[in-house]
Amino acid sequence: MRLFIAGIMQGSRNDREIDAQDYRREIARIVHRHIPGVEVLDPLEMHPDSVNYGPERAKQTLLEMIALAGQVDVLVAYVPSASMGTAIEMWSAYQSGARIYTISPLVHNWVVCSLSERIFPDIAAFAAFVADGGLGGSEA
Predict the structure, then answer these.
(1) What does each of the 140 residues of the chain score in pLDDT, given as a tens digit?
(2) Domain containing residue 51: CATH number
(3) Which DSSP state fits 52?
(4) Which residue, of 54, 72, 96, 111, has the fewest CB within 10 Å?
(5) Is residue 110 assigned to a domain?
(6) pLDDT for res 75
(7) Buried b vs exposed e over 6-24: b needs ≥16 C-beta within 10 Å?
(8) Residue 107: other Cβ atoms inside 10 A
(9) pTM of the predicted protein model
(10) Which residues, including other chains, have CB under 8 Å from residue 137's CB and lie 6 or more apart?
């Protein structure tokens, strides 16, 4: 199973900082614990200094991550507040038929509710779902 972690990085920030990214390690830890052989694709891990990329490299990276999100079995989106990049990654995954699981309070947001197979209020609820076999085994 290939799993992409999508989630807020800059959101609506107006500076060169990013929001806390601890959720990425936690999601990866959860799926690795319960799904043998899962391949976790994390944009931040692939591009840890992306916030400092120039315009051309930023565009190239954005487009590569959107394409990658469309090549996975499962996308887990962490959306505590609106994120344009995450929305595009979700759309790419949706168009390719990937299962999308979203951790978010935004249950009335059209992107979140329309594209998600299931929405979780927090990481603990997602962890319980995975522990109960909700993502399945190594075959998606």
Answers:
(1) 999 999 987 777 777 777 778 999 999 999 999 999 999 999 999 998 888 899 999 999 999 999 999 999 999 999 999 999 999 999 999 999 999 999 999 999 999 999 999 999 999 999 999 999 999 854 43
(2) 3.40.50.450
(3) G
(4) 54
(5) yes
(6) 98
(7) bbbbbbeeeeeeebebebb
(8) 11
(9) 0.92
(10) 1, 35, 36
139 is a domain residue: no
Whole-number pLDDT of residue 137: 56
Does residue 38 lie in a domain region?
yes
Planar angle of CA 104, 37, 2, nearest 5 degrees: 50
Q: What's the one-letter identity of residue 17?
A: E
Q: How many domains does the chain divide into?
A: 1
Whether 138 maps to a domain, the answer reads no
The distance between the two most distant Cα atoms of the chain, rounded to a whole number of Å, is 43
Which residues make beta-bridge pairs with 125?
none
Domain span including residue 12: 2-131
For residue 96, give the nearest of 82, 114, 115, 111 by alpha carbon. 115
